[in-house]
Amino acid sequence: MNEIKNTLVIGTGLIGTSIALGLTAHGVKVFLSDIDSSALDAAVKVSGASKYDGEDIALVVVATPPASVANLIAKAAIDHPLAIITDVASVKGSIFRELENLGTSGWSRIVGGHPMAGREVSGAIGAQGNLFLDRAWVIASNDQTSEAAVATVKDLVESLGAFPIFRTIEEHDRAVALISHTPQVVASVLAGELMDAEGSYIELAGQGIRDTIRIAGSDSNLWTEILSENSHYISQQVTQVANHLLDFASALDGGDRKSVTEKLVKGNHGKDRLPGKHGTSQQSTSTLVVRLDDKPGELARLFTVAAQANVNLEDVRIDHSLGQPTGLVELTVALKAIELLTPALEAEGFVVIS
Amino acid sequence: MNEIKNTLVIGTGLIGTSIALGLTAHGVKVFLSDIDSSALDAAVKVSGASKYDGEDIALVVVATPPASVANLIAKAAIDHPLAIITDVASVKGSIFRELENLGTSGWSRIVGGHPMAGREVSGAIGAQGNLFLDRAWVIASNDQTSEAAVATVKDLVESLGAFPIFRTIEEHDRAVALISHTPQVVASVLAGELMDAEGSYIELAGQGIRDTIRIAGSDSNLWTEILSENSHYISQQVTQVANHLLDFASALDGGDRKSVTEKLVKGNHGKDRLPGKHGTSQQSTSTLVVRLDDKPGELARLFTVAAQANVNLEDVRIDHSLGQPTGLVELTVALKAIELLTPALEAEGFVVIS
After folding, report:
1. Does residue A205 contact residue B184 with C-beta atoms inside 8 Å?
2. Which DSSP state fits A2?
3. DSSP assignment of B55-114
C-alpha cells in the first residue's frame, strides 16, 4: 500500500466527511469543498481537514449526491490535470454516460468507486473515520482507466480499512440492481401492502415478514435518487420478479402443486448461492432457539456460556413475541457445535427450545 | 386456567409430540394415535404418553398434515361424542369448508387452532414440550362454537406456555396470507432470481438481500401444502404485489420520481405498522455498529459491557463481510441508551463505528 498524497474531497456529507476523517487519521493532507459553506465549515471542524485553497491535488474524491457527480468529475479533470479522480456513488453507468456526453478529457484518470457501507438508517449520527472498516468497496474502471489510477484508488480503499472488489461498470450496475436495488423495491412494495391491511391482521406478524421488509425503512429521498440512476436494469429485474410472482399465483390458482414446489425449490437453491460468512457454506450451520428473560445481563450470560464452551456464534437473532415479557434468541452455529452448546446452556439453567 | 382432562393427540410429528410432551409434564393424561405405528412407538417413548386404548376423551388435538385434518376431525366428532376437538393446521378455511361438505356433526365442539411456532428450519431435531413457549397461538372459532369449547382450547394453549389470539376463520386465513404466506412466496421468488445470475454479481450481496430472502430456505414440501390450502387469498395478495411491482417498474421507466418516492414512503409507513417488541414503537430505538474480532468470547465481552452499563439490547445482528477475519455487530437499543452504551464499549476497547 502506497502513501496517499494531497486529496481533495468534494461534498461533505456523511461519506465525504468520513473519508476525510479516515485519511487525516493516517496523516494524509486532505482538503474539502462543498457548495454549502456552513456544511463545509462543520466538516472542517470535525475532520481536521482544510478548506481547499488551490494547492496541487493528487487525488479527487467526489462524494456528492449522484445527480451532480458527473459534472463535478468533468470539472475536476480540468481543474486538477494530474489528479486521479474517483467517486462514491452507488450507481456507475449513468455517471459515465453523462461524462461521455460532456466530452470529458482525462478518461485514463477517472475510476468509479462504490463503498458498500450503506445502512437503512440514515447518517444523522454523523461521520466517522472507521465507517468503511471491513466493508466491500467496488472499484469500477472504464476501458481507458490507467493501471496507476486503479492502484491509487485501491490504496485509498485499503487505507480506509475497506477491501477492494474489481468490476466493470456494467457488471457493477447489473449486480447492484439484482442484489441491492431490486430487493429494496420488493421490500418497499411488500411493506406498502400493510398500509391497506386491517390492524388485526398485522398483529399476527412474526419474524418472517419482519426480516423480509426490514430494508423498507430506508430513506425515501436517497433511494429515489439511487433507483432513478440505475432505472434501466432495476426495471428489467423488477418486471421479471413481478412476472414470476404472477406465474406463482397462476400455479396456486390452477392447483399445480408440482410447479409450486419447483418454484420453492428454486428459491432454496438461490438462497444457498449467497456467500456464507468468510466464504463458508451456509449449509454447515444449524440454528438453536433459547428462551431468555428480557432483562439486562441475560444475553451476556448466554454468550459467556457459549464462549466458555468454545463455540463461535455465526449469527444471533432476537425474536419479538407480541406483548410477552420474555424473549426467544436464535443462535446460528456450526452443525457440530450444537452438541457442545446445548448441554452447556442447559447446565447454566437456560431453556433450549429447538 | 382449568385443568386439562384426558387428551388424545392424533398425529405424532413434531407438533403433536411436542404438545403431548408439554401436557404430560403438567400431569395431564395424554393418549397418542398415528397411522404410522413406528412413528407412534417412537412418540410414546419420547413423550411419556400412552397409545390410545379406548378411554373416554375430553379433548382431541388433530396434529396431522393439513390435507387429512378435516377427515380426522369429522371422525373424532363421531368417535368422541363429548370431546372438544381442535387442530394445529396453519390454514383454517379449507378445513372448515371440507367439514361442511362432509356434513360433520358437533360443530359446537370444534375449534380451529394455529400455533405460530413455525421455523424455516424443519423439525428434524425433534419434539420438545416447550416448543410453544411465548409463541402466539391463534384460536379460530366457527359461528356455532360453544364458549366452553373455546375455553378448553384456551386452557390447552396457556398450559403449553403460549398466548391465545382470537380470530374468525376468515380473519385468520386472510391475515396469514398477508403476513406469512405472501412474504414466503415473495422471498422464494426473489431468491430464485439468484439462480439465473452471474456468480460475480452475487458476491456483492450484503445484509439487505440476505434478510429479504432469509425465509426462502423453508421446506418446499411443507410450504407447497400450506400455500395450496390457502391458495385463494394468497393468489389475490401475490397478484396485487406483482401489479404494484409492475407499477414501480413503470414509474422507474418513465422517470416519475414523485411516484417512486411515494411508493418508498408507503413502504416506510407500512413497515412502521409492524408491532414493536412488547408493543413499543419501533421509532424509539436506534442502531449502533461495533467491530469485533471474530473469535469465541468477543460477543460475550460485548454483552457483558452492555449489561454492566444497564443497557437492554432490543436486537442483535451480525454482519457478514466477504472473506474478512473480523465481524460487524449491529445492536438495536433504546434511543436514550446510545449515550450510555457507546462510551462504555469504547472504554473496553471496542471500536464503535456508527
Report:
1. no
2. P
3. ---SEEEE-S-HHHHHHHHHHHHHH-TT-EEEE--S--HHHHHHHHHHT-S-GGGEEEEE
pLDDT at B69 over 90: yes
The confidence score (pLDDT) of residue B335 equals: 79
Q: What is the rounded CA–CA span in Å between residue A198 and residue A216? A: 19
- pLDDT of B278: 41
- Beta strands B285-293; B326-334: pairing state: antiparallel
CA neighbours within 13 Å on the CB side: how many for A203?
Answer: 15
Grid-cell match 432470481, residue found: B193
Mean pLDDT in residue range A88-106: 91
Single-letter residue type at A153? V
How confident is the model at residue B270, as a pLDDT?
95
Angle between helices A66-79 and A93-101 (to 10 degrees): 50
Enumerate residues 285 to 324 of chain A having a beta carbon within 8 A of any beta carbon in chain B.
286-287, 289, 291, 294-297, 299-300, 302-304, 306-307, 310-318, 320-324
| Average pLDDT, integer, range B204-212 | 87
pLDDT digits (tens, 9 = 90+) for B29-63: 999 999 999 889 888 988 889 999 999 999 999 99
DSSP state of A64: S
Kindly report the average pLDDT of chain B as a whole number.
87
Please count the residue pairs, one from chain A and one from chain B, whose beta carbons lie less than 8 angstroms apart. Answer: 475
Average pLDDT, integer, range A297-301: 79
CA distance A9 to A156: 12
In chain A, which among 167-226 make CB contacts under 8 A with chain B? 167, 171-172, 174-176, 178-180, 182-195, 197-206, 208-218, 220-221, 223-224
What CA–CA distance (Å, rounded) separates A302 from A295? 12
ipTM of the complex: 0.80
Alpha-carbon span A141 to A154, nearest angstrom = 12
Helical (H) or strand (E) element with A7: strand A7-10
Give me chain A's average pLDDT, please. Answer: 87
Per the CB < 8 A criterion, the answer to whether B203 and A171 are in contact is no
| 3-class state of residue B129 by DSSP | coil
Q: Measured between alpha carbons, how far is B1 from B83 in angstroms, rounded to an integer?
A: 18
Amino acid at position B281, single letter: S
Question: Is residue B49 within 8 Å of residue B7, measured between CB atoms?
Answer: no
CA A213 to each of CA B187, B245, B268: distance values in angstroms, whole numbers, following the listed order: 10, 14, 10
How far apart (Å, rounded) are the C-alpha atoms in residues B235 and B212?
Answer: 20
pLDDT of residue A281: 46
**What pLDDT shows up at residue A166?**
94
Whether residue B120 has pLDDT greater than 60: no
Q: Is B139 on the interface with A (CB under 8 A)?
A: no
| B149 close to B139: Cβ distance less than 8 angstroms | no
Tens of pLDDT, residues A3-44:
899 999 999 988 899 899 999 999 999 999 999 998 898 889
Distance set, CA B82 to CA A181, A301, B16, B105 (Å): 58, 49, 21, 12
Q: Which residue of B has its CA nearest to A121?
A: B287
* DSSP sequence for B131-195: TTTT-EEEEEE-TT--HHHHHHHHHHHHHTT-EEEEEEHHHHHHHHIIIIIHHHHHHHHHHHHGG
